[in-house]
Structure formats: structure tokens, C-alpha cells
Amino acid sequence: MRLSDALPGLFDRTTAGQLNSLSVVLSQEIDRFNKLTAEMRVSLVELQKAIKGLVVMNSDFELMFQSLLINQARSCWLAWAPSTAAHSTFAPRACPPAHAL
Fold first, then answer.
1. Strand, coil or helix: what is 10?
2. How far is CA 43 from the centre of its chain?
3. Is residue 40 situated within a structural domain?
């Protein structure tokens, strides 16, 4: 997702040069969503390589594979996912990035 694809006027600044609060929160959520999809893309590509036998299937890949089999999200993906709790803080990574596996 790109901010440039937003509806006209959504990210317009006030006369004081500030964004309205909805635009600030929305841009933060877009950033988090983009980080989440990037992390998922990298780790799923690495998991595909492990399944094909191109890289070693270590315990992290095995846990990811088992989680996907039972329709559960990988714990470090949840750390990047937008929170539905009010006033939540950004969660720390629960596992290493996929490229470090």
C-alpha cells in the first residue's frame, strides 16, 4: 500500500501544516501493514525453499510449517500485525527475521 494511492484530500495538511489525527493513525497502520507483508513474503519464500529441500529445514521452519497446517499465524507475524487494542504499543519481534534463519 502506498500513501500516494489514497483518496484525494485524505492526507492534506491543515493551515498550520499538520495532518489530522485520522491521517496520522492511518499512515502508521499502513507502515505496519507494509512491514508485515514484507516479513511474510520473505519468510514464506524461505519456507518454500526449505520444503523443496533447497535450504535446511530447521526448527523455526518446522514450527512455521506446523502453524500454517493448523491455520495459525507465525508468532513474529503477529508482532508486526496491526493491533486492535486501544493505545497498544508496538510489539517486539517474537522470532528472528526469516532471512536470518
1. coil
2. 11
3. yes
SS3 25: helix
Output the CA–CA distances (angstroms, integers) from residue 32 to 3, 57, 61, 62, 69, in the order listed. 13, 28, 23, 26, 25
Enter the pTM of the model.
0.63
* In a domain? residue 95: no
Return the percent helix, strand and coil in the chain, to nearest 5: 55, 0, 45
Domain of residue 44, residue span:
18-81
Residue 99 domain flag: no
pLDDT in tens, 61-98: 888 888 888 888 777 777 766 665 544 444 444 455 55
Number of domains in the chain: 1
d(CA 71, CA 10): 35
Structural domain includes residue 67: yes
Chain segment 16-62, per-residue pLDDT in tens: 877 777 778 888 888 888 888 888 899 899 999 999 999 988 888 88
